[in-house]
Amino acid sequence: GTGGFSFLVQGDAQNDNKAYTSRTFREAFEARPYARAVVHAGDLIDTESSDPEWGEWHEAAAFSNQYLNVIASTGNHEYYPGPELAKHWVAQFEYPLNGPADQPTLAETVYYVDYQGVRFISLDSTQAMRADSRASQTAWLEEVLAENPNDWTVVSFHHPIFSVTSGRNNQTIRDAWLPVFEQYDVDLVVQGHDHAYGRGNLIANEQNLPDGVSAEDAHTGPVYLVSVAGPKMYVPDPAETNNWITNDANLRKVGRDVQLFQTVDVTDDGRMHVEARTVDGAVFDAFTITQHEDGTKLVTEDTMWAGGPGSSREGVEPPALPEQPGNGDGEPGDGEPGDGEPGDGEPGDGEPGEGEPGGDTATVELGDTSVAPGDALAIKAAGFTPGERVSIELHSDPIVLALRTADDHGAVAATVTIPRDVTAGEHRIVLRGLESGITVSQDLIVTKSAVPTSGTLSNTGDESLGVVLALGGTLLAAAGGVFLIRTLRSNRKAA
């Protein structure tokens, strides 16, 4: 299938991940809570052999990495001090072995995965500093792009084609890969390394635009994007002498001293909308790539969208109230429907509860109607669309406790943990089908906790925190494997 999903993009995390990068990860998940993947452009940590740093990276992402397919590229700090790749890499991530066959060291750093009409390609720009690795990756890249059956292409690697800061100039990579990106009209090229934000295009792609379209607001060809998620910052080069303009490229948007993440909405009507946002959710940059039916493509400046496929604010309609018995063709008598076969106030064909009609009505059963903060609660529900994702939430202030996939009969089962900081009193457990919009709820009493919780972090949601997400049937096209995220849990804290 194509379109109809959202994914996230993160630049360098690298330093102070628990204290600062965590803000970026949390805000990204809040902006698109139902995004299906996150693309990392390298330098997840600073020192490749540091257990505490890898532990902080996982703590910064927290539960979001359980819900997102992590598509990560290596940066130079995954090889620092090196020279080999961090041993943590293959211990934590499981990527398809479909990279260049003649370069064993590129295994699980150079790869591609397909998901709902998008081909995600990861390159290893650190190893590409060597001529032999660069040649192998370039030949492989051409083959993967030439045989791409998908509508969209996103490429990620670390060292930018056009640098934003510090007088940097990655000429060998630019000479090798830029012509390939342009030849195959790659849609989005995601990079990091420069600890600043930059977004632009080749000036040559601002020619021969449609009538009424200005080069100030639009261009064709690939979008080259450099971003940073963590707190480490560099100073952008002057506009008149930067690495973009000296290589015939237009740096349309530049950002300094700002942590950012990107939301990417892929729609089923041929659009890819990208927003760069700050850690407080403000939109810093926005553009839309539109593919037209005649095969042409146009990239235009844009503004913030109200929501996307990965946002709970769009595509989910509130459920309609059930009709009362007797509103159909039959003539009810004393509240019972005419043509049906009711029993004890229930309509004929359905299997309702508490006098409501059957059919599409969902039901939920709680293991207990009264629990204390920190307690486990068993939940069973039925009546959802088979195969859809179901959000299990605690209201009135919505807290997502878990996400589950309905089985072939539309049933869902989960054991969740009531957060320790929940206020005692009346609450509701709400289950919501993310595709169908079907909603069902059950009252719950949260009693006062018998154990003081001061000085402890909130324990929220799903007990099965070690669960691993797969990308899905179409994700690993060539490998035919399962794309998993393995979480390495650090057994010691950073000093």
The CATH architecture classification of the largest domain is 4-Layer Sandwich
- In the sheet with the most strands, the strands line up as 3-2-1-13-14-15-16-10
Rg for CA atoms: 25 Å
Unreliable runs: 355-359, 451-495
Shape: globular
Q: How is the biggest beta sheet arranged?
A: 8 strands, mixed
Task: Tell me what you see in this structure.
- By secondary structure, the chain is of the alpha+beta class.
- It folds into 2 domains: 5-301, Purple Acid Phosphatase, chain A, domain 2; 363-462, Immunoglobulin-like.
- It is built from 6 helices and 26 strands.
- Strands 3-2-1-13-14-15-16-10 form an 8-stranded mixed sheet. Strands 5-6-7-8-11-9-12 form a 7-stranded mixed sheet, covered by helices on one side. Strands 18-24-23-20-21 form a 5-stranded mixed sheet, with no helix packed on it.
- It starts with a strand and ends in a 10-residue tail after the last strand.
- The model is unreliable at 355-359 and 451-495 (pLDDT under 50).
How would you concisely characterize the structure shown here?
This protein is an alpha+beta fold.
Map the helices and strands:
Elements: E1 5-10, H1 17-31, E2 37-40, H2 51-61, H3 64-67, E3 69-72, H4 87-92, E4 93-94, E5 111-115, E6 118-122, H5 131-146, E7 152-156, H6 171-183, E8 188-191, E9 197-202, E10 218-219, E11 223-226, E12 249-255, E13 260-266, E14 271-278, E15 283-291, E16 297-301, E17 363-366, E18 370-371, E19 376-382, E20 389-395, E21 399-405, E22 412-417, E23 425-433, E24 439-446, E25 461-462, E26 484-485
Parallel strand pairs: 1-2, 2-3, 6-7, 7-8, 8-11, 18-24
Antiparallel strand pairs: 1-13, 4-26, 5-6, 9-11, 9-12, 10-16, 13-14, 14-15, 15-16, 17-19, 19-22, 20-21, 20-23, 22-25, 23-24
Helix pairs in contact: 1-2, 5-6
